[in-house]
Amino acid sequence: MIVFFGTPQFAVPTLEALLDSRHRVALVVTQPDRRRGRGQKVTDAPVKAAALKRSVEVYQPERLRDPMVADVLHRHEPDLGVVAAYGKLIPADLLRLPRRGMLNVHASLLPTYRGAAPVHRAVINGEKETGVTIMQVVEALDAGDMLAKAARPIGADETSEDVERALAQSGAHLLLDTLDRLEAGAIRPEPQDESASSYATRLTKEEGLLDWTLSARQIHNRVRGLYPWPHAYSFLDEARLVILKTQLEGPEAPKAEAGAAPGTVTAVSRDSIEVETGDGRILITELQPEGRRPMAARDFLAGRPLQPGAKFSP
Question: Which of 138, 144, 155, 219 has the most CB atoms at less than 10 Å from its CB?
Fold first, then answer.
């Protein structure tokens, strides 16, 4: 009997894999309904929607430390707890309830990138590889013994959304394999190397403001890593522009004259806006003006022509 903790889309493939397996999910614990989207309407989070679709009981406590939460879980007599991006730390009294403890599907190759935003931080930092880790849940954040890992490369132009979607599927398969191997006694838990650990802090809206003095590659990584939230952005003539997609300038691209300040538009083509950075130039290929839909650079330029010398500013 499994109690499942999860909230966002990342957790849905793991929940669905469990529901499609021989294992029984008795209860899904997910965070309370929140206002979401541009209209700020109260909607079901992805895990809740997936559980209700499969007629699984859903429980949405405001606080996990409320004594009633332990009572609810105890009534289901769980053998195992599975956590996938629930969004809050699980208190010690709940960790002790399942007979076989709790396992976490974490979107990094631990011990690196513990914390709330492991995929985004890996992309922002220009990592070439990431993965998922199945670990035992302990009171310390993402610090439990590791049971299994699966690595994957990060493509040079992949966004955090692309990577997270792939890791969600990988994590679901890895969890089922881990459960089978645990039952067969074929896994020896591996302690994490604390000296190699790092923390992936939660993203903030303020991080989206681009610093054009960074290198072209650093800016490209930030645009990828901050997609789909909070997005990278800058200002052009005091108008806020969300930068959705960029490309690194190829060696065959024509070079503008040297000496342009970071943030300066150095060239405009049919499909891109070339901008000087602190090291190299970057091509903006998709963006979104304030209050409008996302659009390709060509559509933006059709309504807002730009000339070399225009300047993006913080």
Answer: 219
